[in-house]
Amino acid sequence: MNVRTVVLTAVVLILIIAFCCEYFYTHNPSSAQEKVSLQRYVIDDAGRNVTLPANVSRIVAIGPGMLRLICYLNATDMLVGIEQSELQWGPTGRDYAMAYYDEFKNLTVIGPGGPGKAPNPELLLSVKPDLIIMSEIYCQFIDPDTLQREVNATVIVLDYGPAGYLDFKELNNSLTILGIALNREDRAKSLINYIQSIVDDLNNRTNNITMRPKVYVGAVSYKGAQPFTSTQSPFPPLSLLNTKSIADNYSNKTGFVSLDFEYLISEQPDVVFIDEGNLQLVKQSFESNPSPYLQLNAFRNGEVYGILPFNYYDTNIATALADAYYMGKILYPDRFKDINPAEKANEIFNEFLGKPLYQEYSAAYGGFKCLSNAFG
């Protein structure tokens, strides 16, 4: 055998060995290598780089809005616990609870819940969750890394914007993170796309209107029931309609605003909407002293309408979008002539929660309607 033959044989053997090693490595990775390849990460809303469990089947939600997001992603089958406040309040007024309260009732209590109340690590530990979805507001009570160590479960922190508002950038980010964590990425993308289609539709219907009515939204809830002179600036459904409230000119302050009747009378809104969550309070005030109300043209002309409350343990996104279509129908009937507000509301609730909820809302609050008879 000459030298050339020996060299060629050696090269062939080396190539065969290399191929075999590559094949073995590819098809038989070590357990450590396999573990690394399966690891998933997210950056949560507290800026933490969180390594997610390989398998997530047991989850809990703590703090305002977190259970709502889980329901929006159709992941209630993973829940193993519930906050006490969710059970005490009953379902009415929180879109997700109205859809899934019967499932919640059988879950183990994992802590008090509600605004201003700290989580209970001991109760959380008792249900052995794989993943805890925690509202960023709860970071004031406990560090998420500390909670993670105490409960021996991964914690992700989410925040989809200030209560009572529609921050779609933050909402989309939270849905995306949660979709990854719960293996509901397709569902998260589908819902995000649907929300964008609603925003685009409302904008396209109202973005080129030159003459707009003067509008006021009264009795807007904020940390409990509020009177007629309580409002919000800007008001999210109106913002989706490219329409201002007269409260937007009251001061430079944004958020929840308390006005006085003198300002309302001087501004004379053409149309008034009332948050039906506080309608009884407004009716009692009217019956006690109707004079200031009757100095408003909207009350005298029967241009007073009820909308569904959407701020309860953070923002009911679906309800706020449904309100926007009804308000658009009242303010710009020619632009919304193809819309039946009740049917559109049920479409939205179905997309978010898989159930038509408008009739339940209507039974609880009165639904979309003119309120002129209530102030006769």
Automatic annotation (TrEMBL):
Pfam families per the UniProt record, alphabetical: Peripla_BP_2
Cited Gene3D superfamilies: Nitrogenase molybdenum iron protein domain
Domain Fe/B12 periplasmic-binding: 58-335
PROSITE patterns assigned: FE_B12_PBP
InterPro entries reported for this sequence: ABC_Transporter_SBP (IPR050902), ABC_transptr_periplasmic_BD (IPR002491)
Domain of life per record: Archaea
The protein's name in its UniProt record: Periplasmic binding protein
